[in-house]
Structures are given as C-alpha cells and as structure tokens.
Please model this.
Amino acid sequence: MSRVAVLKGGRSLERQVSLKSGARVQDALERLGHEVLAIDVGPDLVARLHAERPELAFVALHGRDGEDGTVQELLEVLGIPHTGSRVSACIRASDKVLAKHAMRDAGLPTPEFFAFSETAFRELGAAQALPAIEERLRFPIVVKPARQGSALGIKFARTAADVPGALVAAISYDRKVLLERYVSGRDLAVSIVEEDGAPRALPLVEAVPEQEDFYDFEARYEIGRTRFECPAALPAEVTERAQEIALAVYGLLGCSGFGRVDLMLDADTGELQVLECNPIPGLTETSLLPQAAEAAGIEFDTLIERILSAVAVPA
Amino acid sequence: MSPAPRRPRSTARDIERYGALFAQRTKVMKSSAMRDLMALTERDDVISLAGGLPDTSTFPPDSYASLMSAVAAQSCARALQYGPTEGLSLVKGCIGEVMAAEGMAIDPDEVLVTSGGQQVIDLVCKTLIDPGDVIVTEAPTYPGAVPTFCAYEADVVQVTMDGDGMRTDELEATLGELERAGRRPKFIYTVPNFHNPAGVTLSLERRRELVRIAAERELLVLEDNPYGLLRYEGTPLPTLRALDGGEFVIYASTFSKILSPGVRLGWAAAPAPVLAKMNLGKQGADLCSSSLSQYFVSAYFASGPWQNYVRSLIEIYRRRRDVLLDALAEHFPREARWTHPQGGLFIWATLPDYIDTTDLLARALEENVAFVPGRAAYMDGRGGSSMRLNFSGVGEPEIREGIRRLGEVVCEQVALYGTLTGAAPVPKPRQRAAPSPGPAPTAASAPELAKVLPLAAQRRAR
Model:
C-alpha cells in the first residue's frame, strides 16, 4: 500500500465541491489501506510535499489551478506521480475553447462557436462583430467562460439585447469566453475510467432538471433539484455512439486515468454534440462519475483504487 | 488502541435510502451554491464586506473576566443549572431596561427569553406556519430569515421598499389580491429600523399605516428590531409595538448588537396566547436559553451603565459607515445607487441591471473583496443587481481599500457593457486612489492623479 497525498480545496470557485470530493477520496483510500495525507492546497503546498514525501498524489481539485495543469506541472517538477490527466491534457481539456478547436479539427461533433478574449472587445471592436455572430449561431446563444466548471457563469442570451449582459457575466469568470450554438435536447454524461491500461466508458448518466430548462450550478449540487437517470434510457446504438465519441474525445485530448465527457443529444437532428471534457470530474455524493461507476457494478472504493492504479509511475 | 472504523461516507444510493425518510420540509433546505461561493469570502486575505458581524474587539477582557468572576462568586450553581423556559427574571429586568430605552414598558410575563433574535423568527414560524401558508416580508428581506421560512415551507410574498421602508400602499394592494385569492398571511415580517440588508428605516407615517392595516385585518406583525439603539443620526421613531400597544405585534430583539452575539440571547414580546405557544415551541427546541449567558448579561447590567458600551459602538460604527459612504462616492460609477442608513450595520447598493452581483462576486473575489449578492435577500430570483455591504465587521482602512477594489471591478463591467452595446465610451470613474490603503485623495488632488496613473482597467500587481 502507498503513501498518498490527497490534494483538495484550493482557491478556485469550486473549492467547496473539491473539499467534498477530496473527503470521499480520503475515506476510500483509508479503507483501502493506504496511508493518506490530506492537503487543502495553499501557499505551503510545495513545502508540505517536500516535507511529507508522498509516493503518489490523488488530485481531487476542481477548476482553476487544480484541473488546468497548474498543480500537475508542480507535481511533475517535484517528481510526484499523480492521478488523472497530465499537464498538457489538462490544459487542453479544461479550456473549452482549446478542446472545441481540437475536436473540430479532428472532425468530432461539437456545437458551432466563436471565442473571444475580453481584449478583443475592448481593443479590437469585437462588439461590432456580434450581429454577424448572432446570425450564424441563431438564438438562443449560450455564453460561457472558457475555463470554469460546474456550470458557473453560463448564461443564455435569448435575444441580441441579452448578449452584452451575458458577456459581462461570463467575463466575470474568465477573460476568455465563447458564444456557442444552443443545442436543445438531452443532457448526457459519459464517464470514463481506465482499466488495465485502456480507457473504458461507463453507463451513461442523463441529467434531467426538475424545474429549470437548464441544469445550473445550484441544481447540480443539491439533492432533489435534478433527477439522474443511470443508465440513461436511450436506444443501445445511441449509447454506443455516445461512448464512442466520448472515448475519441478523451483520446484526442490526451487524457488519462479518468474523466467525463458531457454531450447533448440534439432533439432536432438526433445528433450527439460534445460540450466539454472534464479532466477531474466531481466525486461527491451527487456527482455523475460515481453514479455511473455504481451502475457498472464498481463500488466507490474500487473506483478510487482503479484511478490510483492508473497512475503512470515514471521509469 | 486502534481508532474505531470510520463509517463509510454515503454513496448516492445511501442518499436515496435516507432521502425517503427526510421530511418534506427538508427538500427545500438546500446547500446552496451561493453558500459555497460565500464560503470563499471568509479567506483571510479577503476584505469581507459580506459579514454581519458586530465588532466585539473593544469589549474589555478584564470586564468580561470580572463579570464571570462575579457570576461564579454569587450564582455559580444556578448559572450552571437549567432555567425556566421563559427565561430568568433577572435578565427580564435587563430586557425591560433596553425596551424602556426605546420607549416601551414591558411586563415580565409578556417576555420570552430566547437564544438570539434568530430563535424568535424560528418560534414564530413554528407556532404559526403550516406548509403553504403565506408570510409577507419586505423586498429585500433579512437573508438569515430565508432558510427559516423555507424550513417551514412558507409561501413568502415580498413587498418592495423605498427610502421610507416598506411601501404600505403596495402592502395593501398585495393583501387585497391575496384576499381575493382566498389567502390570508399568517404574519407580516418587518425590520423597521436600519433594515438588514436595505439600510432604510420605516417612516413614522408608514409605521402608523402598518399598525392600522394589521389592526383592521387582524394580522400579526413580527417586528424584528436588533439595531434600534444603533442610531447615528436623526430621531428615534416609536416602535410598531409601542404604536400598536402589543395587540398585533410580536416584537423581537436581541443583545447581539448592543452587547455580544456570543451570549446568544434575545427575546420576544408578544400577545399572551402567542407567547404561550412560542414557549411550548421553545421547550421542544432547547428547553431553555443558556443560564450562564443570562447571568452574565444580568451581571453586566448590574455592573454599570450598559448604554456606555452602546455609545462607544455607535461612535465606531458611525465612522465606519461614513468611510464606506465616502468610498462609494469616490469609487463607484455614477450609474450606481446606494442607501444612506441612519444606523445599523448595512448599506444596500444597486448597480445597473445588466450587472449580476452573483457573477460580480466571482470577479470581486479575484481582487480579494467580498459582499453579499442581492439575490440572497429575495425568495423569487430578484435582487440580481444589488449587493449588501457591511461596515461593522472590518476597520476603516479595509473599508476604504475594499470599496476601492470593488469600485474598480464595477467600473470595469460598466465600461465593458458600454463597449459591447456600442454606447459612447464611458468616462473613467471620478478618481483613482493610490493602490495601498491610506488616506483617500481629496477631490482637489484627484484630477492630478488621473493624469498620472495608467488606464483604469489594467490589473494592478498586488
């Protein structure tokens, strides 16, 4: 058994979710017989890692600095093998703009989009290009920060008048934002865990919001606001196709260990469209990956053990 | 000896298993995303204008010690013992003094001692509310009452306020509508003095209106008055209870802001039948409030003029309020509005409606400043462009610096919106202060600074 540092908390907006994910991971690792060192990451992270010398790090951080390659880079510099995707995959996957460009270039389906930085609006008059963008994408348009999880900062612009406010809101979370064509349909998540060196897609989870027409930050983390169906009630060929696409995206972005790809099943066209790939999906009681694992007969502790064993120890 | 095996944390299936047992009322008790965001506001390096904490740092430790010694010497066994549910008569005497200071005479048996003013809200709901019952409150309302109303599954209808507090004309119209729908509110909840979060005070005329409406329609009013004595300017107004004579008003107050929130001691004064039910409810909740706290408070009142400490707090808070108001005038854009409270702990600022203060909070946290987004004070999604700013919880330099940072972020968003809508370029805010906390530049020096300092929206190195 190993000496594992669980990295959780941190300073991102998803800190509280990460603390919950981290706590569950800690408990599982302890039950599995590992020696666990829990670290709420802060300015003393490197000092603590130097002092405590864990053999492995389980990264249970979400959002900025935890999921975007920052902490992964640090761990690599310190020579501590860690769970999940490595630096470049994290960079690509956690930035929706980079991920979507990669998907588009590889011919994988993702809703049409345009991305801008705040400076494009301030310095290049990009606001004047909005009408053309709006015509291309049609309304409603989804406005999102490029690098933010848990549906924070995602706004719907139903008319042109809504767009500036939606941009101001999204830019509150990230200087880089995207405007994306809205796909109306079913909200699907394909969880992926590696098994014997190969990524395996788990049963699909469908998120069915109880009230709102959109599954927002509040609904995702409250018991009772969203109904989760797992396995999602879909025809077998749709499930297979979704898993195929998800694995292709996971591979394209270079992910490892585990992850979750979120897709929409377009009600109008019957097509699947990839929204994003999450390199460190939530591991809380209401999170999707643990539910998918359970549906596949993989208990939480086993799931955590698998994620841990998938860590590539440098030769 | 090895530690007992820890129970595995619950899986989704466990949640479902227990979920079937949870009472219907808990389904609306949410662990909210806003609470998660708000948890981030408590980091040490964040200037938090979000709290509601009074300043307890000036209470002399040796007074605290000598009061506790006095209690130990005179009343040790009793202070350590259970007390009657309605509270000790010693502390009811103190309550009488505080109420007299606000123009009300009270009989001890009209008073129920509670564990803070919060418990009064809870007991009133427990006593009066069946699921689906209507409560009328102000819009915005005290954010801390929202979870309580939700826990009892009340249907909350909010009536807007202006500079004079709750709009009683709108209240009458609302009550009329409810009546036509066959619905009758169980009570009207109001914070008439230095409203939390709005800062405004219910005018005398409106108080008389509210009392008249309550009497005519035989509706109970829960008058929540934690801040009445924290007045910095203007003339004290009679309480609703004083105007009503105690017939339809349930009066709630607390020692939290005039002495200490840590003692967890408040009280309710209500019509006898209501008080009796509340007493039963309290028995079921916590048997009695802390005897220790009640003896402490009594010893405090016996040790000297309790108003002195209140006066010293008034001085501190008045200065902080003024610093906050000045800082707002200096750093917030002209599109922003804010209230000018005559007392209490809070200012309510409203930004143009294209700014959502929940999103703004995410941005503000990057600059290490925090506030309470307005949505927390509404049950119906309103309040998206407002924010509550507290001035009791941090010192004057922090207030100045916090508002400077916040103003910068707000101006940035106003400017961005202007750019996005193709409006004429928005003029930069009136002045830029130096990055480090210090005396704010005077109006005269500001134009000079504006020429010297670089573009507004650039991020500063910290």
